[in-house]
Design goal:
The protein has helices at 8-11, 27-34, 46-54, 57-62, 81-91, 105-109, 137-143, 147-150, 155-172, 180-192, 200-207, 211-223, 252-259, 269-289, 331-337, 366-374; strands at residues 16-20, 39-42, 69-73, 96-101, 119-123, 227-230, 246-249, 296-300, 306-311, 315-319, 344-349, 355-356, 361-365. The chain has 380 residues and is α/β, with parallel strands linked by helices. The strands form three sheets. Strands 8-9-10-11-13-12 form a six-stranded mixed beta sheet, sandwiched between helices. Strands 2-3-4-1-5 form a five-stranded parallel beta sheet, with helices on one face.
Amino acid sequence: MYDRVLNLRALVEHRSVFLFGPRQTGKSTLVRHTFPDAAVYDLLEADTFHQLSTHPEHLRQTLDPARRIVVIDEIQKCPPLLDEVHLLIERNRALRFVLTGSSARKLKRGGANLLAGRARVARLHPLVSAELEGDRLLERINHGGLPAFLDAAEPRQDLRAYVGTYLQEEIQAEGLTRSIGNFGRFLEVAGLTNGEQINFAAVASDAGLAPSTVREHYRILEDTLVGEQLPAFRKTRTRKPVATAKFYFFDVGVANTLRRTGAIEPGSDAYGRGFEHLVFLELRAWLDYRRRDDPLTYWRSQSQLEVDFVVGDAVAIEVKTKSRVSARDYRGLLALAEEVPLRRKLVVCREPRRRREENGVEVVPVRDFLTALWEDAIIE
């Protein structure tokens, strides 16, 4: 059991919570550890699902009135149940629901009752450095941060099975796409381009699909929280920025599995991709867990100057796997700073010690960066 950053108890103090996250991120474990005395309805249990899907009112009829916390796992499997949840909340303002799900797509597109602001929305990410003893950097670059796989005896085999299970259960079982074979081909190509600018036409060509189908498949990945776009920062004028978003999968291990990447060692191209991907995931999780609205973007000029991550308009971060950073490695940071009044310009790298250049660029070892990030010392 890991001590997770997400504080569910604080979130439910004033209202109910939708807790979303891909499978195996640890939603059920976290909820049941936080609320051991809660009433639990697990819709993955066949009898529970059958009873509540055919007679949603059974939730109201069977709930012990002494309970103050009610957990419903995999709520997207039975959207009509949300009407009963709504009714119970209205009748008892002290009652709190924790509604977990691996996808909000079915709820949104089915016109489900999303409780009209009576429930907060939170997201559980794979494990981050603040939840681990030591950042376990190389392990996570190889196997990702899903709790069940990070500590598994055979993580690669387990990850391969997980990707197959996702295809079967999350996509096929919910009817999110008409052809699981087409989606499987798309997913393999999308894995190969993880962390790169999205080129719908190129992905469509490689997967043998129409560009419109590829666009819809990317939306499925986002709606099921299996990946997300990183938009381009577009507020520079002198240097014209590109507008195309990048795409990252929600976990480094899942991306490696789709790419069929073998063992990754420092200094390899795969290590560089995983290193950058991991920094992205830590930033994304920090923004979500701290409930920050700062946009997370990247910047690239038409002349190919680039900054890996921009948080809001104030903090720019370049990621390098080098053990010695030179001025050439942060030209993009200096170019962006000429047009945007950045408060901080950071290079996250493998140097052993932190240092500051005369031009204001901060060279920060990755472990120092991760520690400072979760101590809220990177972004004000």
